[in-house]
Write a structure and sequence with these properties.
globular, 16% strand
């Protein structure tokens, strides 16, 4: 796992931070740290002033629903033995409004209520990713971390899912950390971009400015390889 050093990022509410970098630069490691899947060896991960690395267990449990993750493989991330209802509703345990929230989450991502009792194998790749997004939404998060969330989809389906994410951001004020090797995707979604190279942020700035006039060799290399 790549070691991250001196990485400092800020994510305002309702905005998208795009993360780009070559393979092995530390993008997925950063996602795992921000989502709490692995603890940092040093430094702070602050959410509304609380350090996720050192906060008491009770505080971390309260914060955890606010930070959700969408993974790259929409099929591998879904348990094939569970129905969509069980997959999406799993984080809610026995909440009294569980079923209503499941159906609302499905509605938010453009899936009908009658799909709730089907299994993942019955859906296309784009629909499976919508299910994964619904599961992320079910806890009413304020931050969603997306690690190559559309790279496994064909181009037309990518566009549908990206536009869905933009719509959800506007409706719910979501903040995204969006990792992608595809700069066209990053350009479409991001307000701000940070460039990772060998575990360090080598350049960051407003998306349009950074993509139009990169200053660092690592950024220029990424642009040259893409366009």
């Amino acid at each position: 796992m790549p070691i991250l050093k001196n990485v400092s990022l800020d994510l305002p509410a309702g905005r998208t931070l795009g993360i780009i970098g070559a393979s092995g630069s530390g993008k997925s490691t950063l996602c795992r740290l921000l989502s709490g899947l692995v603890p940092p060896d040093d430094g702070q991960i602050l959410y509304q002033g609380q350090d996720l690395a050192t906060a008491p267990t009770q505080v971390r449990r309260k914060i955890r629903p606010a930070i959700q993750m969408i993974f790259q493989d929409p099929y591998g991330a879904l348990d094939p033995r569970q129905t969509v209802r069980d997959i999406v509703g799993e984080p809610l345990d026995d909440a009294p409004d569980r079923d209503a929230r499941i159906l609302k989450a499905l509605e938010d991502v453009g899936l009908s209520a009658d799909m709730a009792n089907r299994y993942p194998k019955a859906f296309s790749g784009g629909q499976r990713q919508r299910i994964a997004i619904a599961r992320a939404l079910i806890t009413r998060p304020s931050v969603i971390i997306a690690d190559e969330a559309v790279s496994a989809l064909d181009v037309s389906t990518q566009a549908i899912v990206l536009n869905l994410l933009l719509d959800l951001q506007k409706r719910h004020g979501l903040a995204y950390v969006f990792v992608s090797h595809d700069l066209a995707v990053i350009r479409h979604l991001s307000h701000h971009i940070a460039v990772l190279d060998q575990g360090r942020i080598v350049e960051s700035g407003p998306a349009s400015d950074l993509l139009a006039a990169p200053t660092q060799p690592a950024t220029k290399a990424l642009l040259d390889n893409t366009y």
